[in-house]
Predict the structure.
Amino acid sequence: MIDFSTHYLGLKLSGPIVVSSTPLSESLDNIRRMEDAGAAAVVLTSLFEEQLALESRALDEDLSRGTESFAESLDYLPAQSDYRVTQDVYLEHLQRAKDAVEIPILASLNGATTGGWIRFAKQIEDAGADAIELNTYALATDKRQTSVAIELQLLELVESVCQAVKLPVSVKLSQSFTSVASLVARLEEVGAKGVVLFNRFYQPDFDIETLEVRPTLHFSTPSELLPRLHWAAILYGHADIDLAVTGGVHTAEDVLKSIMAGASMTMMASALHIHGIEHIGRVLADMRYWLEKHEYQSLWETRGCLSRRSMPDVSPFDRGNYIKTLSSYSLRQTVAAF
Ligand SMILES: Cc1cc2nc3c(=O)[nH]c(=O)nc-3n(C[C@H](O)[C@H](O)[C@H](O)COP(=O)(O)O)c2cc1C
């Protein structure tokens, strides 16, 4: 029998598939089905900084602190009624989820700046969450804001959340940073125990008939996995921080590749929306088949075997890959032409 167990943020996980933050976990019945299907943990949907600031007196504090841009931003952000759940409902759901299943339940906070809203992290801790995933989705649209300032703001946010709780905190990162490796090392320094690679960007679509810009959400495809694999492979072993892969994990092969790159676990959202929660069980069965066929005893044995650190030739991870990829393509084209 293959041992699937793994570790993430100091938590022992029964396997490598965690349900990523998605509305599917808003139902207790679904959370039970996730556990039955073999999910090793569940990340709840996010509570948003903007929502928490609106909902609590933290808004007053934020405004008096002089964060005018934040105050202005509230004008075009969704109204309170547009958010899926209130903070009270969230905490109650978290407690119920903890009572309903044995697997770890991670709460998700979603924000970009420090402020009074961070106190909610403590309430999450008190409600019994096993860890906090901090989604730091932000778009740099202000031409006066430099990349250094953006990174410092992120580090300040992560540090504040880490200091507010004893729970392990992971950071769901965007891949659009100039130096991901340096940033991850500094995230570790300010207290993060894990990074989740990577946030998906949800660019709005343009309707040329109505001249409107509309939010769109498309489910992922496995092709989105490649940048995540690449960065997990580069980051593995470079910092003492756990790596999780989210984005394009659909099949057993996707999970295996992610672990081989160096991830501690993988997360699924789109695949479960497309194929149903029981898809987790099928992926685990496919993985078991593959690992047995290749005579592994445990999944952990495979961890990091395709990381940059384990490769005698690191060129596939660096500029060498770029050159080889472009050169091999033109060679193939030339051969085909003859
Ligand atoms: C319908 C839907 C809702 C989501 N809501 C959240 C959310 O509230 N917070 C968050 O951090 N990620 C959210 N995500 C992103 C997922 O957690 C995940 O990181 C992303 O979809 C990439 O994984 P996938 O390829 O398995 O879908 C959502 C994704 C979907 C499809």
Observations:
- The mean pLDDT is 89.
